[in-house]
Specification:
Elements lengths: L1 H23 L3 H10 L5 H8 L3 H4 L3 H26 L7 H29 L6 H24 L12 H30 L1
């Protein structure tokens, strides 16, 4: 009786293992994202934020750079919306209001630069030689400037008087944007080198 039960269980185990090996076999796009993200500033975040785009990215460095910029853009938009809500909160100190306004302006500039970068990156497909280098240089400059903007945002929150929940929540938002933008810059730079 035991052997009669054991045989179907062995077959089930074999079929299960066969199924899992095909489904868990590393997809080329997933391994491409993982290896590409290993050179990013924040590899785990890079992999996590780009894996939803695996079907689009496949093994294309250009699509990878596009997706990374799209993630940065979405995070910038989310931060902009958050800061817009935050500036309307009642009971803010005048210095907090001022710092939030400044930060909002900086994030808006950053968003504009990332948007331009995405548009510019699309032009690479028709570009060759020096023209490609020029387009990529624009993208690199704008993404780098966007990152500088994001880091500048927290300047207005300097000093002990500004410590508190508002500063902490703004810092969390800005850090999130800065990290995905830093990753995007690393992937854009890698793409520029390889092309």
């Amino acid at each position: 009786m035991k052997s009669k039960i054991a045989i179907p269980l062995i077959f089930l185990a074999v079929f299960y293992l066969a199924g899992t090996t095909t489904s868990t076999a590393v997809k080329p796009s997933s391994s491409f994202i993982k290896s590409s993200c290993s050179t990013a500033t924040y590899p785990a975040l890079c992999e996590e934020s780009l894996s939803p785009f695996a079907k689009t990215i496949k093994t294309s460095p250009a699509q990878l750079a596009h997706a990374a910029l799209a993630v940065s853009l979405k995070q910038s938009q989310s931060t902009q919306a958050y800061l817009n809500k935050l500036k309307r909160v009642k009971g803010l100190k005048p210095r907090e209001q001022s710092a939030i306004r400044d930060c909002l302006e900086v994030v808006s500039d950053s968003l504009d630069r990332v948007t331009k970068s995405i548009q510019e990156l699309k032009k690479y497909e028709r570009a060759k030689g020096q023209e490609f280098i020029w387009h990529m240089s624009n993208v690199q400059t704008w993404v780098s400037s966007a990152l500088t903007d994001e880091n500048t945002c927290m300047d207005g929150f300097g000093g002990r008087a500004m410590e508190g929940q508002i500063k902490t929540s703004v810092r969390a938002q800005i850090t999130s944007v800065a990290h995905v933008t830093s990753n995007a810059l690393a992937l854009v730079n890698n793409f520029a080198k390889k092309h």
